[in-house]
UniProtKB/TrEMBL annotation, chain A:
<dbReference type="InterPro" id="IPR027417">
    <property type="entry name" value="P-loop_NTPase"/>
</dbReference>
<protein>
    <recommendedName>
        <fullName>Origin recognition complex subunit 5</fullName>
    </recommendedName>
</protein>
<keyword id="KW-0067">ATP-binding</keyword>
<comment type="similarity">
    <text>Belongs to the ORC5 family.</text>
</comment>
<dbReference type="InterPro" id="IPR003593">
    <property type="entry name" value="AAA+_ATPase"/>
</dbReference>
<dbReference type="GO" id="GO:0005524">
    <property type="term" value="F:ATP binding"/>
</dbReference>
<dbReference type="InterPro" id="IPR048866">
    <property type="entry name" value="ORC5_lid"/>
</dbReference>
<keyword id="KW-0547">Nucleotide-binding</keyword>
<keyword id="KW-0235">DNA replication</keyword>
Automatic annotation (TrEMBL), chain B:
<dbReference type="InterPro" id="IPR020795">
    <property type="entry name" value="ORC3"/>
</dbReference>
<comment type="function">
    <text>Component of the origin recognition complex (ORC) that binds origins of replication. DNA-binding is ATP-dependent. The specific DNA sequences that define origins of replication have not been identified yet. ORC is required to assemble the pre-replication complex necessary to initiate DNA replication. Binds histone H3 and H4 trimethylation marks H3K9me3, H3K27me3 and H4K20me3.</text>
</comment>
<feature type="domain" description="Origin recognition complex subunit 3 winged helix C-terminal">
    <location>
        <begin position="636"/>
        <end position="743"/>
    </location>
</feature>
<dbReference type="InterPro" id="IPR045667">
    <property type="entry name" value="ORC3_N"/>
</dbReference>
<dbReference type="InterPro" id="IPR040855">
    <property type="entry name" value="ORC_WH_C"/>
</dbReference>
<keyword id="KW-0235">DNA replication</keyword>
<dbReference type="Pfam" id="PF07034">
    <property type="entry name" value="ORC3_N"/>
</dbReference>
<feature type="compositionally biased region" description="Low complexity">
    <location>
        <begin position="542"/>
        <end position="557"/>
    </location>
</feature>
<comment type="subunit">
    <text>Component of ORC, a complex composed of at least 6 subunits: ORC1, ORC2, ORC3, ORC4, ORC5 and ORC6. ORC is regulated in a cell-cycle dependent manner. It is sequentially assembled at the exit from anaphase of mitosis and disassembled as cells enter S phase.</text>
</comment>
Length: 458, 743
C-alpha cells in the first residue's frame, strides 16, 4: 500500500477514502467497477486528491498497463471536445490529430484500443456538466466499460449527489464515494501540514521586499517550531472557523496572516514565547482579514481600503458624466414610480383634486406595498428621456452623445435591458438595477433631491 | 484648394491629410485620383504645413503626458504579473487551481481604455516573456467563441512576432499556420502549442532547439521556473460587458488548465471591485486571486492634459472661452472620453487653419515671421478683414498711414511682426497671470470663479472679469480675510507664478519681454504686501530690527534681505502673526493691494477677447457653432430638418419654403408624408393620410373616388420609408391605422 501512504502523507485525514479508492481501482486481476461517483462539498480535496492518486498510480505502473485521462468538463462546450480530450490522452499515438465526431466514433475508437491487460481510467471533473450535453452522453459514459469492451472505469467528480444525475433514460448505479467536510481538528491537522510552505512564503516575501537584516530574520524564521505554528493555527482557527469552512480559503488566509503574526517577532519587539502578547498584536489584523475572507484580495501591500461593499462608497467612487448621473436618476425614478404618477410629479399644473385623491389612495396603501421595496419595474426609453428632460433644469439637445450614455449605463450594468435589446428605439424597455441608497448618493453629488420625485416619499 | 471651398454645408473628407496614420493596404490602392489630387493640392499650402506641425507637437506632448500618468499603475500591474509567474513566491503556492488576476479600475469610459490596455500589453511584452491576448466581450457571446478567440489570439500573435526564428523554427510555424483554423482552436491546441514552444523537455527531439534556455543558471529551481517562464496574459478590457455565465465558465477553464498553462487574468473594471464580486459567485472567485489597481480617473487626466498641453504657453493656437467650454462640457457632461476631447480639439485646429493661408501665421514667433513674406495679396486682404483690424486702423491718427495700411500690402507686412509680437506676448501674459489668479481665487469658499484653471480661463476670455458678480464676490471674500490668510495667499500666488515663469516660460521665445513685465508687477505687489504686513505695526516699538517703520525704504530693505521666496514668505507670516490687530490701516492696505491686482493685472492682462490686441483672431478659434454642428451628432434634429425642409440639404430651386410647415407638391414624397404625419395625433388613419397626401401631390382637381394607383404606390412607399426610419409603426389594435412613435 505504498500509494496510499504517499498520498495520505501529502493529504492528511483522507486515509479511509484513499484506501477505498485504491481498492476499487487497484491493479489486481479483477475487472474495474463500471463507474465511480465522487461527490462532496467544495474544497474537500476531490480534484486534488484524485489527480494525485491517479498520477501516483500511473507512476508506479507502466503506462501501457495503466492509462489515465483526467478531463475537466467545464471546457466541453460540445461533447466533441470532451471525447477528443479523452481520446487524446488514452490513445497516445500522434496525439494532436485526434478527430472524434460523436459518441459513436468515440466508442469505436476505444474499441480499437483493445489490448489484453491494459486498464483505463477516465476521470471527469465537474461532471455535473455532462447533464447539459446531449441526452445520450451521460448514460453512455456510465456504461462505457460495456460499450467499449475495455477494462475501463469512469470516475465522476462533482459537488452534486447522484440523485441529481437521474434522467429519463435510467442510468446504471455507480459506486458512490463521499468526501465529507473536514472537522475542526482535521482542518487544523491539514493546515499544520502546510507549515513548510508558510515558512517559505515568509522568507520569499522578505527577500522580495529587500528588508534589512535579512540573514538574521531568515535565521529566526528557520528556528520557528511546528508547535509554535500549531499554536498560531489554534488562534487563527478560533477566529476564522466560525466564518469560513472552506479549506483553500483558510489555507491562503492562514499563510497570509502568519506573516502578520511573525512581524513583531522579526522586528524584535516581542519574544517568540510570549503568546499572549503576540495575540494582542495580531488580533486586530486577524479581524480585518476576517472581513476580507472570501474576497481574495491578493493585495501586495495589505491595503484595507478596498472593502467597498456598501453602496455608498461605490457611488462615491463611481465617476459618471453629469448627464449620465441624471439619466441614472431618471431611470431610477421611472423604475420605482408607476407611469400613472408621472403627470402629477412632473407637470407643474396638475389638478389639485387629483392630488387629494392620490393622497387618499396612498394612505390606503400598506407599507409593504412601497414600490422601492418591491423592486424595479421596467420602463421605455421614451419615458426615461421624458423624465430626464423633466428633472433636468437646463435644455439639452437629444444628441448621439446623450443617447450613447444610455448604452454606457447598460454596459456598466447600472441599467439592464428587459426587451428590445437588439434594436434600441423609443419602445425598448429598460430597468434600473441600482438601489435607493446609491441613487441618493449620486443625486447628492449633483445637488438633486430624488425623494421629492418618488411616490413612496410623497 | 479652391475646389473644396463651396457654399454648401457639406463636409469634406481629406483622406490621409488630417491624420498621418497609414490606412490599410487595400485602402491605399483604392484611393482614387481625385483624392490624391486634392491631397497634394492641400498639403502644399502653407497653412497645412503649419497645421501639421502644430498638431504633431501637440500630439506628441499629449501622448507623453498620458503615458507618464499611466506609468505608475502599469508598472505596478506588470510587477504583479511578473511576480505571479515565479513559482514559490506567492501565497497560493502548490494550489494549482488558483489563477492570479488583477482588476484594473479604469473609470467609466470604456472605448478609451483600449489604448490604455494596448500600452499595458506593450509594457508586459517588454518586461517579460509572455503572450498577451486581449479578449473583448463582443468576441465572447458564447463560451465556444470565447475560447476559440482566446486560443487563436495567443497562437496567432506569437506568430506575428517570431522570436529570433531559426529555419527549423519557421518550418514549425508554417505547419502551424497551415493547420490553424479558428474552429479548431480549443484549449488542447493551446496546450500543445505551449508545450512545443516553451517547454522543451516535454517535446519530441526535432523541435527542441528553438528558443533560448538561459534560465538554468538562475536558481536551483530552474526546472520549475522554466516551466512557468512564459506567461499567458488574458486581458478582459470591458469586464462589465461580459455575460457572467460565460465569464464564469471561462475562468473555471483557465483555472483547470492553470497547472499546465500559467495564465494571468487582467480585468478592466469600469465601476468598482464589487462588479467583480457581483459577476462571479463564490465557486468561481475561489479559483482566482484578485489584486486591485487603480488608475487616474478621467477628469483628472483631462485636467492634466488641459493644464499641461492645451493651456501651455508653448502653443500659439488658442481656443476662445466658449469653444473651450464647449469641448470640456462634452467631456464632463456627456462621455468622459479623453479621446473624444482630443479629437474635438483637433477638429477645431483643422477648422482654424483651414480658414486660409493667413492662418499660417499662427505658430511660434520666428516661424510666423518667416511666413510673412509668403503671404499673397489675398491673404493680406484676409487679415484686413479680421474684426480686430478695424479698431487698430481707427487707432492710427495719421491719414497717410491709414491709407498705406489699407492698400499697401508691403507696408502692412512690415507692420505685422510688431502686431504678431504683441499678440504672442498678450497670450503669454494671460497664461502667466492665469496661474496667479487661480491660486488667488481657486480655493475660496464655494469657488465663485471656479476651482480649475480651465474654468477661470474660459471665464476671463469670454467676459470682462471685473464686471462679473462672481469676481466681485471673490474680491469681497479676499478683502475680508484675516491678515495671515491674505498674506499667505498672495505670497503663495506670487511664488506659484514665479515657479511657472521658471518652469514653463523661460525657454520660450519672447520670454524676456514677458518676464520683465511680470517681474515688475510681482515686485510692486510684493511691496504692497509688505505694507499690508506692516500695517498696524507702527504703534509697536520698533524692536523688530529688520522691519523698520513703514518708510519707502522698507520694501527695498526687505527685498535685499530675503534672497529666497520661502524666506520672505515665512518672515511675512511671522510678522503678521505678531501683529494680528485688525486696523483700518490694514484694511486700507489690503484694499490697495487688491485694487492694484485688479487694475494692473486683471484689467491689463486678463482681457476678454473683445479687448485683445489686433489680429488675435489669427491665434484664437472661436467658431463654436461650426464645431458643434460637426462634432455633435444630432440625428433626430438632422432628420427632422431633412424631412421638414429638404431644401436645407438639397439646395434645389424647387423646394424653397417660405415657412417651415408649408407643403409643396415638389417636395419629395417622403417629406410630404412626414409633414402630414406631424399634424396627426397618436393614431393616424391611413386613408385620411392618403387623401391628404393626394391633395398635396396631385394638383389636378379630382373629386373622383378612385385614387391614381401611381400616387397610391408613392404613398405606400413613403409610409414604408417612414416606418423604416422609425417614425411610425403599423398598429395592431386598430386596422388601417399607424401609430406615431415620436413626440
Ligand atoms: N486532505 C487535504 N490535505 C491537504 N490539502 C487539502 C486536503 N484536502 C484539500 N486540500 C486542499 O484544498 C484545496 C481545494 O481542494 P480541491 O480543489 O481539490 O477541492 P474540490 O473538492 O475539488 O473543490 P471543488 O468542488 O470546488 O472543485 C486544494 O488546494 C487542496 O490542496
Ligand atoms: Mg474540483
Amino acid at each position: 500500500m505504498d500509494v496510499c501512504k504517499t498520498i495520505t502523507e501529502k493529504f492528511p485525514c483522507r486515509k479511509k477514502i484513499v484506501k477505498e479508492l485504491i481498492n476499487l481501482i487497484s491493479y489486481d486481476e479483477e475487472m474495474f467497477p463500471n463507474a465511480i461517483h465522487i461527490h462532496g462539498h467544495t474544497g474537500t480535496g476531490k480534484t486534488t486528491i484524485i489527480k494525485h492518486l491517479l498520477k501516483e498510480s500511473v507512476r508506479r505502473n507502466n503506462e501501457n498497463v495503466f492509462n489515465v485521462a483526467f478531463v475537466n468538463c467545464v471546457e466541453s462546450y460540445s461533447s466533441r471536445i470532451l471525447f477528443e480530450n479523452i481520446a487524446e490522452t488514452l490513445c497516445s499515438e500522434n496525439a494532436e490529430e485526434v478527430k472524434v465526431e460523436n459518441l459513436k466514433d468515440f466508442v469505436e475508437r476505444l474499441r480499437q484500443l483493445k489490448t489484453e491487460d491494459t486498464r483505463y481510467i477516465i476521470a471527469l471533473d465537474n461532471a455535473e456538466r455532462l447533464r447539459d450535453m446531449e441526452a445520450n452522453v451521460l448514460p453512455s459514459i456510465l456504461r462505457l466499460q460495456e460499450l467499449s469492451g475495455l477494462n475501463l472505469c469512469v470516475i465522476l467528480i462533482t459537488q452534486l449527489p447522484l440523485e441529481k444525475f437521474y434522467c429519463k433514460t435510467s442510468i446504471d448505479e455507480p459506486i458512490i464515494v463521499y468526501f465529507p467536510q473536514y472537522t475542526k481538528s482535521e482542518t487544523l491537522k491539514i493546515l499544520s501540514a502546510d507549515f513548510k510552505n508558510a515558512q517559505n512564503l515568509l522568507i520569499s516575501q522578505l527577500q522580495r521586499n529587500k528588508t534589512e537584516n535579512l540573514e538574521q530574520k531568515i535565521d529566526v524564521i528557520n528556528t520557528v517550531s511546528r508547535d509554535f505554528f500549531n499554536n498560531y493555527l489554534n488562534l487563527f482557527l478560533g477566529v476564522f472557523y466560525k466564518a469560513c469552512r472552506d479549506l483553500s480559503e483558510l489555507k491562503i488566509t492562514a499563510r497570509k496572516c502568519f506573516t502578520y503574526y511573525m512581524t513583531p517577532i522579526l522586528e524584535g519587539n516581542v519574544d517568540m514565547s510570549d503568546v499572549s502578547r503576540l495575540w494582542r498584536c495580531v488580533a486586530g489584523q486577524l479581524r480585518t482579514a476576517l472581513m476580507q475572507v472570501y474576497i481574495r484580495n491578493g493585495q501586495p501591500k495589505s491595503g484595507a481600503e478596498l472593502n467597498d461593499k456598501d453602496s455608498v462608497k461605490i457611488a462615491q467612487s463611481l465617476e459618471l458624466p453629469y448627464y449620465g448621473k441624471y439619466l441614472l436618476i431618471a431611470a431610477f425614478i421611472a423604475s420605482y414610480n408607476s407611469s400613472k404618477e408621472d403627470k402629477r410629479l412632473f407637470v407643474k399644473n396638475h389638478g389639485k383634486r387629483r392630488k387629494r385623491m392620490q393622497a387618499v389612495n396612498a394612505k390606503a396603501k400598506v407599507a409593504e406595498k412601497m414600490s422601492t421595496y418591491i423592486g424595479p419595474k421596467s420602463f421605455s426609453v421614451d419615458r426615461l428621456l421624458a423624465i430626464f428632460y423633466a428633472i433636468l433644469e437646463e435644455k439639452v439637445g437629444l444628441t448621439c452623445n446623450l443617447l450613447s450614455q444610455i448604452s454606457t449605463l447598460v454596459n456598466l450594468k447600472l441599467l439592464s435591458f428587459v426587451s428590445g435589446e437588439n434594436s434600441m428605439d423609443g419602445t425598448s424597455r429598460l430597468q434600473c438595477t441600482v438601489g435607493l441608497e446609491f441613487i441618493v448618493c449620486i443625486s447628492q453629488v449633483v445637488g438633486f433631491n430624488v425623494r421629492q420625485y418618488l411616490c413612496d416619499f410623497n | 484648394m479652391d475646389s473644396t471651398i463651396s457654399v454648401s454645408k457639406g463636409c469634406f473628407v481629406f483622406k490621409g491629410a488630417a491624420e498621418g496614420k497609414k490606412g490599410g493596404a487595400i485602402k491605399r490602392k483604392l484611393k482614387d485620383d481625385n483624392a490624391t489630387n486634392l491631397q497634394t493640392q492641400i498639403s502644399k499650402q502653407p497653412f497645412y504645413s503649419t497645421y501639421t506641425d502644430t498638431w504633431r507637437s501637440l500630439e506628441i506632448h499629449i501622448d507623453q503626458l498620458q503615458s507618464q500618468s499611466y506609468t505608475k499603475t502599469l508598472e505596478d500591474v506588470v510587477q504583479y504579473v511578473e511576480n505571479e509567474c515565479i513559482v514559490g513566491n506567492t501565497d497560493t503556492y502548490d494550489m494549482e487551481e488558483i489563477v492570479p488576476a488583477a482588476a484594473l479600475l479604469t473609470g467609466v469610459n470604456q472605448p478609451d481604455h483600449l489604448e490604455q490596455f494596448a500600452t499595458l500589453t506593450q509594457r508586459i511584452l517588454e518586461k517579460m516573456s509572455a503572450s498577451v491576448c486581449m479578449l473583448q466581450s463582443r468576441d465572447c457571446s458564447t463560451l465556444k467563441s470565447a475560447v476559440e478567440t482566446m486560443v487563436y489570439n495567443f497562437i496567432e500573435c506569437a506568430q506575428e512576432r517570431p522570436p529570433q526564428s531559426d529555419l527549423e523554427d519557421e518550418d514549425t510555424e508554417k505547419r502551424e499556420r497551415k493547420r490553424l483554423r479558428r474552429t479548431q482552436c480549443n484549449m488542447r491546441q493551446l496546450v500543445h502549442w505551449y508545450r512545443r514552444k516553451y517547454i522543451k523537455p516535454y517535446h519530441n527531439k526535432d523541435n527542441e532547439d528553438d528558443g533560448v534556455d538561459d534560465e538554468e543558471e538562475h536558481s536551483p529551481h530552474a526546472k520549475q521556473r522554466t516551466k512557468r517562464s512564459h506567461a499567458l496574459v488574458v486581458i478582459l478590457p470591458d469586464f462589465e460587458c461580459f455575460n457572467t455565465t460565460i465569464l464564469q465558465d471561462l475562468i473555471l477553464i483557465l483555472s483547470a488548465y492553470y497547472a499546465h498553462l500559467p495564465f494571468v487574468l487582467i480585468f478592466g473594471v469600469a465601476t468598482s471591485v464589487s462588479a467583480v464580486h457581483n459577476a462571479l459567485p463564490y465557486h468561481v472567485t475561489s479559483k482566482v486571486k484578485l489584486c486591485v489597481f487603480k488608475t487616474q480617473t478621467a477628469p483628472v487626466c483631462l485636467n492634466e492634459i488641459l493644464e499641461r498641453v492645451i493651456l501651455s504657453p508653448k502653443y500659439a493656437f488658442h481656443l476662445s472661452g466658449k469653444a473651450f467650454k464647449f469641448l470640456t462640457h462634452i467631456f464632463l457632461y456627456y462621455d468622459f472620453s479623453i479621446h473624444g476631447f482630443i479629437q474635438g480639439y483637433k477638429y477645431c485646429l483643422m477648422e482654424h487653419f483651414f480658414q486660409g493661408n493667413a492662418y499660417a501665421l499662427c505658430s511660434n514667433y520666428t516661424a510666423s515671421l518667416n511666413q510673412i513674406k509668403n503671404l499673397s495679396h489675398e491673404d493680406v486682404e484676409c487679415i484686413r478683414r479680421l474684426l480686430s483690424f478695424r479698431p487698430y486702423v481707427e487707432s492710427i491718427n495719421d491719414c497717410k498711414r491709414i491709407i498705406a495700411i489699407l492698400t499697401d500690402d508691403n507696408y502692412l507686412k512690415k507692420k505685422l511682426p510688431q502686431l504678431l509680437r504683441d499678440c504672442h506676448i498678450h497670450f503669454m501674459l494671460l497664461r502667466i497671470f492665469l496661474e496667479f489668479l487661480t491660486v488667488l481665487t481657486g480655493d475660496l469658499p464655494k469657488c465663485p470663479l471656479g476651482k480649475q484653471r480651465r474654468e477661470l480661463y474660459s471665464f476671463c476670455l469670454s467676459k470682462e472679469l471685473r464686471d462679473q458678480p462672481e469676481f466681485k464676490e471673490c474680491w469681497q471674500m479676499l478683502s475680508f480675510m484675516s491678515k495671515d490668510e491674505f498674506v499667505s495667499k498672495v505670497s503663495k500666488a506670487i511664488s506659484v507664478t514665479e515657479d511657472f515663469l521658471h518652469s514653463e516660460i523661460v525657454d520660450l521665445e519672447l520670454a524676456e519681454d514677458c518676464m520683465t513685465t511680470v517681474n515688475e508687477k510681482l515686485q510692486a505687489l510684493k511691496d504692497l504686501l509688505t505694507k499690508v504686513v506692516m500695517s498696524g505695526m507702527d504703534e509697536k516699538s520698533p524692536t523688530n530690527s529688520t522691519a523698520a517703520p513703514s518708510t519707502p525704504a522698507t520694501p527695498e530693505a526687505n527685498k535685499q534681505k530675503f534672497t529666497s521666496r520661502q524666506d520672505l514668505k515665512e518672515h511675512l507670516l511671522q510678522m503678521s502673526k505678531q501683529h494680528n490687530k485688525p486696523s483700518s490701516e490694514y484694511a486700507q492696505s489690503v484694499a490697495q493691494t487688491l485694487l492694484y491686482i485688479q487694475n494692473e493685472i486683471i484689467i491689463k492682462y486678463m482681457a476678454p477677447l473683445t479687448r485683445s490686441p489686433p489680429l488675435h483672431e489669427l491665434f484664437v478659434y472661436s467658431d463654436v457653432s461650426t464645431v458643434r454642428r460637426h462634432i455633435i451628432g444630432a440625428p433626430r434634429a438632422a432628420l427632422h430638418m431633412a424631412l421638414n425642409n429638404p431644401h436645407y440639404y438639397l439646395q434645389c430651386k424647387c423646394c424653397q419654403l417660405s415657412e417651415s410647415n408649408q407643403l409643396l407638391a415638389t417636395l419629395p414624397d417622403l417629406s410630404v408624408a412626414y409633414k402630414l404625419h406631424l399634424e396627426c395625433g397618436r393614431m393616424i388613419n391611413l386613408f385620411d393620410w392618403l387623401q391628404a397626401f393626394r391633395s398635396v401631390v396631385d394638383d389636378i382637381d379630382n373629386e373622383q373616388e378612385q385614387v391614381d394607383p401611381q400616387i397610391q404606390a408613392r404613398f405606400t412607399r413613403a409610409v414604408a420609408e417612414l416606418q423604416f426610419l422609425g417614425y411610425i409603426k403599423m398598429s395592431k389594435r386598430k386596422t388601417d391605422h399607424a401609430t406615431r412613435l415620436t413626440w
